Amino acid sequence: MEQAMLLHPEEMETPGSTSWKDKISAFRSTVWKGYKSKPISHWILLALSSAAMLVAFPASSLLSRIYFANGGTSKWIISWVAAFGWPIPALVLVPTYFVLGVFPTPLDFKLAASYAVLGFLSAADNLMYAYAYAYLPPSTAALLGSTSLIFSAIFGYLLVKNKIYASTINSIVIITAAMVIIALDSNSDRYASITDRQYALGFLCVILASALHGLIFALSELVFDKLVGRRSFHVVLEQQVMVSLFAFIFTTIGLLVNNDFHGMATEARTFKGGRSSYLSVLVWGVITFQLGILGGTAVLFLASTVLAGVLNAIRVPLTSIAAVILLNDPMSGFKILSLIITFWGFACYIYGNYPRSKDSS
Fold this sequence. Notes:
The protein has about 350 residues and is an all-alpha fold. It has helices spanning about 20-35, 40-70, 75-85, 85-100, 110-135, 140-145, 150-160, 165-185, 195-230, 235-260, 260-270, 275-300, 305-325, 335-355.
């Protein structure tokens, strides 16, 4: 995206102009110039990628809860579903080599080992989220999952030496306060069949999963900077394919050790709606999870990390609202307050980092 599109409105203000009308006019002019600077195909692809993030990620979260609500019991199966779709980005990657005229990145031992470590962490991350959706309402899990922003900032500072600005600290405090509100109001959104211990375990698992997500993000940056040496669309797709492949391998091993493959037939027979509903939940879970990741990858390279952050902020309330409407999720006044505070925390982070993200793509 053009640098001009990443400017604050006040930075585009003409000398001597103080009216909001002039500011809005200058902003519109800048947006129009940015729009004209790219072909229509760029904006169509960006729109589709953004839609994929806003639809696929909430859908995969709701499908995970539907699996457990309708008779599914295995956390390994639902985490396996998240990694099973690794061939989907591979189908996008292979044509990319021909379109861009590039060659695959050489895979040496260090790079392969890095992908294996990231794959293991990703498998653990998926398993943690499986426990969260087994015991928590999707709206609560989505709100708690927003703490990944906090861990991304912390691990980015510790491992990649990314700067932490005052706005980042402010957003960390705000989002932490929102999570405390949810914890104090836990009795209002707990399913009747869930015990205190299970709810606490789900709460803990989603926080740990968010921490793992932040760690994976920071380690991915290290891989790009230290081992790959460049960032491009096909390189990120390569990492997605390899990490998902290793996550699939580790999760499959977990399924075999836990003997859950044999349990799938029993689950399919007893699942609400029958075998066809069971397979539909799993298949659509595979598709939506990978489409969400693909959409996020495309947004990063077609626009900026700022837009990706905005869309990530928007999908939190979207998931919560969809869960309330489609799954009758409990939504207390305190949870609504937590939702508003969380969105405010995201807004503070995005606004504070907006001008510093001009060159990120």
